[in-house]
Amino acid sequence: MSSVVAKRYAKAMFEVALEKNLLDQVEEELTLIVETFSSLPTLREWLSHPLTEADKKKELFSSVFSHLSEITQNFLFLLTDRQREGYLEEILKEYKRLSDEAKGVAEAIVTSAFPLSDEDQKELVQTFQKLIGKTIQIKNVVDSDILGGVIVQIGDRLYDGSLRTKLRRFQERLKQSQVG
């Protein structure tokens, strides 16, 4: 249920930002809001408390986030009126996804046994940009369990070049050849 709500609000905000040519600015502002909320647990508690009035929240937002664009501030007020501030993190994720898609950018989550060097990242970007036809942004996740190689996930596509998977496939082929 919550992801449906977040998607609906993110899509609405995305469409307004796209129309006003403010995609990047709105993303930065939403990121700032989410980071502010997550870095201040007492603020989150106060915001989620049922007795905290919407007007008090808006008053606080007006002073803390006075530098926000009008559309982002109005969006924050709308979420406050509808008691949806708790969805901001999910809304931001979905907004980023929509924004990246509109700009032809894809995030590649690259799992490797060791941190990737700048050279490795450049090579992966070049390879996968040609493969999927989009600009790639790499997020490197280190997992020593894969032993070596890389696993690349772009959207719902998975490219598994890990040593662990290659060894498992090799082991399966050995078993099959012994059976026959």
UniProtKB/TrEMBL annotation:
It is found in: Cell membrane; Membrane. The keyword Cell membrane applies. It is a peripheral membrane protein. It holds the Pfam family OSCP. It comes from the Bacteria. Its main location: membrane. GO terms for molecular function: proton-transporting ATP synthase activity, rotational mechanism. NCBIfam families: ATP_synt_delta, PRK05758.2-2, PRK05758.2-4. This is ATP synthase subunit delta. It comes from Thermoflavimicrobium dichotomicum.
